[in-house]
Amino acid sequence: MSKEFDVVVIGAGPGGYIAAIRAAQLGFKTACIDEWKNDKGGPAPGGTCTNVGCIPSKALLQSSEHYEHAGHGFAEHGIEVKGLSLNLKQMLGRKDNVVKQNNDGILYLFKKNKVTFFHGRGSFEKAEGGVYTIKVAGAAEETITGKHVVIATGSNPRALPGAAFDEKLILSNAGALAIDAVPKKLGVIGAGVIGLEMGSVWRRVGAAVTVLEAMPTFLGAVDEQIAKEAQKLLAKQGLEVSLGVKIGAITAGKKDVTVEYADAAGKEHKAVFDKLIVSIGRVPNTTGLNAEGVGLKLDERGFVAVDDDCKASLPNVWAVGDVVRGPMLAHKAEEEGVAVAERIAGQHGHVNFNTIPWVIYTSPEIAWVGKTEQQLKAEGVAYKAGTFPFLANGRARALGDTSGMVKFLADAKTDEILGVHIVGPMASELIAESVVAMEFRASSEDIARICHAHPSLSEATKEAALAVDKRALNF
Question: What is its subcellular localisation (predicted)?
Fold first, then answer.
């Protein structure tokens, strides 16, 4: 006889495990199914984010930044380092340990919140009488039932046609995090978040990195002024980015990969790389869910079709995160997971897509929330802009990192903050203030009038808000 639950969550990534915990907090008998395995075959909940995404990439970004500082930045501070060497095995081992700590943390949270965890692949078996039967294919196959089902199966990396991932020469995000020797020449196709972050990691530890991007502009989704500043700073570090390229044949040899491509001017090139990272987007992970078996509707791109409340086409079936429309961001998935659990409980869960922050963890970091200047122009919205450079910020000078700026965009009539864009040190942390401000529909004047600690990087946010009214005090 199958085990019965009020809520069954398929997938234990950020959207799934958070949805399960919140459902359990609200009094529902909850199960969560996830198939991810660690290197010993045990459960590794956390999804792409924890296992081969957000968490391990930040661990390597931090380690590689320390290495670069030791080799190039410490001398300015009067710290002399002799005989610097890289222990890549230790660096990767630390990354793996950080991942394990997060895996174990999620398992602990399941236990604490009385969420029943099933290690295996979940799929629909049948739907009848208002109850869904879910098959769990794992070490021991079993079936469970749920009155509500939350699909949180995430996404997979998109491969280039004719260049399947082998994770040895042609790498997805997973392979990019586990290169066991620093490549002399590293190719990256795609100048998005993953491409720039992974390119930064391996450049810092000694690889010559070439990034090939099909789009004619750098970081097209980012505010143009901020993107141009970021491109200039990354190029200065040695990250070679070619825009407007057209990728041709990709041929994997025994020890290297040859990429044929045409540049923006139409000139043909043939580049040979020791490793090639392909980061051209992600596709929803719905294969094996048996959606067709129960009549679950997928859209033309394979996403689970949902309404604004994350309700799928079947009664009491929901979907969150990368497997549905909207930005593929871990924190967006978490907010949807909470909202769905609360909607199941009859509450009014809410996710404001207009105040979801974005971050690229390069150095300098790039973070933004709300509209870009080009979006406001396209929409015909009258706005005022204010910028402030970290070059004029005392804390940034003390840190030794004065690159970048903060930019505010506010409504020309009401002064409501419409967008905030940052490139510079700790942008990922600084953006939170602006997210809060926008959620409460604050004006730039509100931020300009709030006392910020001195000396702090956050003063650059205050100064940019002051600059909207052309009254910055320190620049």
Answer: Cytoplasm
- Flag whether 142 is marked binding: no
331 marked as part of a ligand binding site: yes
Tokens standing for 412?
């020309």
Active site residues: 454
Q: Quick one: 422 and 274 in the same domain?
A: no
Question: 469 among the known binding-site residues?
Answer: no
Judged against a pLDDT cut of 70, whether residue 1 lies above it is answered with: no
Instruction: Indicate which CATH number applies to the domain containing 233.
Output: 3.50.50.60
Q: Is residue 165 part of a domain?
A: no
Angle, helices 193-204 vs 224-237, to 10°: value is 20
CB neighbour list of residue 153: distance below 8 Å, 6 or more residues apart: 10, 11, 16, 284, 285, 286, 289, 323
192 carries a ligand binding annotation = yes
Output the average pLDDT for the chain: 97
Sheet strands (E) in 317-389: 317-319, 358-360, 365-370, 383-389
Q: What confidence tier does 2 reach under pLDDT thresholds 50, 70, 90?
A: low
Annotated binding-site residue? 120: no
- The verdict on residue 132 lying in a domain is yes
Residues 65 and 237: beta-carbon distance below 8 Å: no
- β-strands 257-262, 268-273: how paired? antiparallel
> Whole domain around residue 412: which residue ranges?
355-468
Q: Is 383 in contact with 376 (CB distance < 8 Å)?
A: yes
Contact 136, 143 (CB under 8 A): yes
> Does one domain contain both 63 and 123?
yes
For residues 333 and 290, membership in a common domain is answered with yes
**pLDDT tens for residues 242-256?**
999 999 999 999 999
How confident is the model at residue 127, as a pLDDT?
A: 95
Confidence of residue 273 (pLDDT cuts 50, 70, 90): very high
Tell me: is residue 154 an annotated ligand-binding position. yes
Sign of the alpha-carbon dihedral angle for 369, 372, 373, 378: negative
Q: Tell me how many domains the chain contains.
A: 3
